Amino acid sequence: MYKILLSWRYLKSRYIALASIVSVTLGVATLIVVNSVMAGFSDEMHKRLHGILSDIVIRSHDLNGLPDPQWHMDEITRIAGNDIEAMTAAIQIPAMINFRDNIQGQWITQPITLIGIDQSTYAQVSDFSEYLLHPENRKQLDFLLKEKNYGLGKKDRFPLSGWVRRRASSEWERDAVDAQIGADQIDAADIPDSPFPLVDDSGVEGQGVTVDGLEDRGISDVPFQGAAEPQIVFDPATEQHTGIVLGISICSVRGRDADGEVMDYFFALPGDDVKVTFPNTGQPPKALSDSFTIVDFYESEMSEYDSSFAFVPLSRIQDLRGMVDVESGTKSVSTIQLKLKEGADLNAVRDKLQARFPIQQFGYQIQTWRDMQGPLLAAVQLETTILNILLFLIIAVAGFGILATFFMIVVEKTRDVGILKSLGAPSGGVMSIFLGYGLSLGTVGSGVGLILGLMFVDNINTIAGWIERVTGQEVFDPTVYYFNQIPVIVSPLTCVWVVLGAIGIAVVASILPARKAAKLHPVEALRYE
Amino acid sequence: MSSAFELTYPNVPPEKPDHSQETLHPRLLKSPVVLKATGVTKSYRKGKVEIPVLNGVDIEVVEGEFQAIVGASGSGKSTLLHLLATLDRPDAGEIYFEDNRIDNLSAGSRDILRNRYIGMIFQFYHLLPELTALENVLMPVMINHGVVSYMLRRRKFRKRAKELLDLVGLSHRLKHRPRELSGGEMQRVAIARSLMASPRLLLADEPTGNLDRAAGEEIMEIIRELNAAYDVTMVMVTHDPSIAAQADRTVRLAEGRVESVSIQS
Lengths: 529, 265
Fold this sequence. Notes:
The complex is a heterodimer. Chain A is α+β, with helices and mostly antiparallel strands. Among the domains of chain A are: 199 residues, no CATH class; 77 residues, no CATH class. In chain A, the strands form two sheets. In chain A, strands 2-3-9-4-8-7 form a six-stranded mixed beta barrel. In chain A, strands 5-6 form a two-stranded antiparallel ribbon. Chain B is globular. By secondary structure, chain B is an alpha/beta fold. Chain B has one domain: P-loop containing nucleotide triphosphate hydrolases (Rossmann fold, 3-Layer(aba) Sandwich), CATH 3.40.50.300. Chains A and B meet through helix 1, helix 15 and helix 19 of A and helix 2, helix 3 and helix 4 of B.
């Protein structure tokens, strides 16, 4: 009983000891914040990566792909059918994209990864459709240009896109040609202003009127006198090329506007045409080129993918490249992607498939999404581990602070120890007073740290904004990171471990002083002044 | 007041009084021996030099007796008291408490002895500064009992502690910390504490040595009353001849030996 009473009274009457555990408090708070942010970050990465990549990918090493996909899919169903929820075939080839920059009017060429997808099944194996910007495409992608309403979730910040833009832009171009033909000398003032401002503002209705006027004129007015093939008339105001879904960063850059708000600036938008150049299946491959119309953007917020992925219909790619197996007449694909049922063992299914399609015989690369992003995930994990070790060292340093403070307190309390011993308190009891003192200091310190840490985590974005205002430094720059907000996940288990660890260190640090107190000779201790 | 102080003494058959007791106060003549030390020696080392403090001391304390140990500074009287209280071990000689040898007991047994059978009062009061007067008095039973055991009997203990503080005239200072009390009040708290466990023997080390005359006399009055009215056996170290004059028996130490024993009758 006296142990608890005295530990408690010492705790209440020694504020200097509380100061010695401020470092425990800070260490615990920092550990919890860091772990929550790292967990949030890595969880967000996992989600994103997993959303982009399907569970298991069977990839042909050869660009010409694996022949007879239906036979492969039947085999896969036969082997692991119970675990498979969805399956799709796709083609993934390197390509070049070429389009006109509508900010400066220059031509832009970029390398991309061209992916031919089966739009009816592709969305089932990953979160692909969630990353599209048009609401109808999210439901079901059909590679057809929509009238308007692009920029889901971005609302007024997304420029006018779709058929509205396509018609306006073709009219503008026609006017420009008219003006060139009609005038003896070109006057810059004759060329009308660009009808598509970067931001979809209140002028939308006005443009609509223009477009209506254009339709009134009819196609007969089209001044194609000088065209090489006048019999094939492709009217960009009413027709589109094959649809293409572009990664949003292929044709946009992220920057800040005059007010310091993060903005995307687009070089091309849904409704514009692009040219894509890709290799055919010949030996050696020759470059093929075809026109596509942007029908949507793909925004996964993983810059690696947003800046390279371009999706087109699978059959179009197969036809253009001539990916037809001469013998069987089947069309090849380059990857087969699987989505497994909830709770299925990823690695087990992968191993089964690897056993069925041994690499020596087929040359396929069969990987889970974790395998594909292993290095990135491992790097995040390593960072978390190292940060944890470093921060625990901070708490260990705090432990030495407690050790020193406790030695001082034991010296100060020498007489009390003598009194207790003269009243018959055993050495073990005296020791446990100081151990209990350490325990309660550790508990208070890490408890306060826990609360501070959780409060910090809870308001981390507010705090980040506050620090930004005070220091003028961007804490979490959305133009650099993948996220607009700092993601956090508080793991109760981690909190428990951190708190237990901190309390443990406080108790361990109090062992030596407590032993010193227990070993004091009562007569010497009573004589101590 | 009388209900407050119930010392529970065992039924020890009275020893046959020996010749030295013949001159003791008649009420003590048939009392059993509570404490007995024979040939106790103790020396301290200071560096390489060994300083003898006690060179074969024999004393005897009977139940109900008020014995004073006097002597000059350095005569070893405090050391003797510490040995009697089992706070320290003698180098040679034997100490008996109610016929049980206690100088060679294990640390645990000596802790129990000090906690339940021997009460101590010090010159510098030795109260715990973080605790209130009441809590200080409760300390011996808190040490004796675990959390559960103490909490179960809490009311009883607190009642007794309050009665003891009332006995020493401090019932109005229960919640005060030692630093809020005067020297005399602190010593009265210490006396109440020494009585808490109903000990069979009180050892006092110059209880008035740090007090002014008036406070010292108040303390002595309480001690005398305890001894006279409640038969508390008391061994008191003092260098004040007027206090020694009130004792039943006075042992004078000089240079580590018993110089003389004077008996008051």
